[in-house]
Automatic annotation (TrEMBL):
It is an enzyme of class 2 (transferase). Flavin prenyltransferase that catalyzes the synthesis of the prenylated FMN cofactor (prenyl-FMN) for 4-hydroxy-3-polyprenylbenzoic acid decarboxylase UbiD. The prenyltransferase is metal-independent and links a dimethylallyl moiety from dimethylallyl monophosphate (DMAP) to the flavin N5 and C6 atoms of FMN. This is Flavin prenyltransferase UbiX. The keyword Transferase applies. Dimethylallyl phosphate binds at residues 155, 171. The keyword Cell division does not apply. Belongs to the UbiX/PAD1 family. FMN binds at residues 12-14, 41, 90-93, 125. Its EC number is 2.5.1.129. InterPro entries: Flavin_trans-like, Flavoprotein, UbiX-like. It comes from Pedobacter punctiformis. Keywords: Flavoprotein, FMN, Prenyltransferase, Transferase. The lineage of its organism: Bacteria, Pseudomonadati, Bacteroidota, Sphingobacteriia, Sphingobacteriales. Residues 4-175 form the Flavoprotein domain. It catalyses: dimethylallyl phosphate + FMNH2 = prenylated FMNH2 + phosphate.
Length: 188
């Protein structure tokens, strides 16, 4: 099995629980991972602390980079990070990516992933969408990205907020190509 080199970006959109559940699941999938590079916006850290009541994002055994560290390996396509997940993805971040504005490490990494024809998964978490949002999603999709709205499913009968978030994270991990145990519709 070829191990994955993964970029995880967390922006200031509401939905820090999605990032936390993703981190928990990635820790379980470590045998499928070569590297996880994480970059968080300042707002992402504030929202995490507000919504989850802690700073536990720093407790995970991943490599964290500052939002302006353009020396991070995934700021260049030569590092061959194969997948980038932005979870949650703010509409501001999506807009910058859609228009090629690389003003921080998150938007630069997304630009690199798209130009190298690798996998970009943007977990947008906003509602309702304006026409600007829809056009930005269209532009990112046309550039090769995947828009995966943070719309949970309920047919697995989740019992907690983390289980609800897990329905989205499971879909994201499937899109990223991970082998995982997950609820599958009409499968036993």
């Amino acid at each position: 099995m070829i191990k994955k080199k993964l970029i995880v970006a967390i922006t200031g959109a509401s939905g820090s629980v999605y990032a936390k559940v993703l981190f928990d699941e990635l820790a379980k999938l470590k045998d499928q991972i070569e590297a996880v590079g994480v970059v968080m916006s300042d707002n992402a850290k504030e929202v995490w602390e507000f919504e989850l009541g802690n700073q536990n994002y720093s407790n995970y055994n991943f490599t964290f980079y500052s939002k302006n560290d353009f020396n991070a390996p995934f700021a260049s396509g030569s590092a061959k990070y194969d997948t980038m997940i932005i979870i949650p993805c703010s509409m501001g971040t999506l807009g910058r990516i859609a228009h090629g504005i690389s003003n921080d490490l998150i938007s630069r990494a997304a630009d690199v992933v798209l130009k190298e024809r690798r996998k970009l998964i943007a977990v947008v978490r906003d509602t309702p969408f304006s026409l600007i949002h829809i056009n930005n999603m269209k532009a990112v999709t046309e550039a090769g990205g995947i828009i995966c709205p943070a719309n949970p499913s309920f047919y697995s009968l989740p019992k907690s907020i983390e289980e609800v978030a897990g329905t989205v994270v499971s879909r994201v991990l499937d899109l990223a190509g991970f082998e995982q145990e997950s609820y599958r519709w009409q499968e036993k």
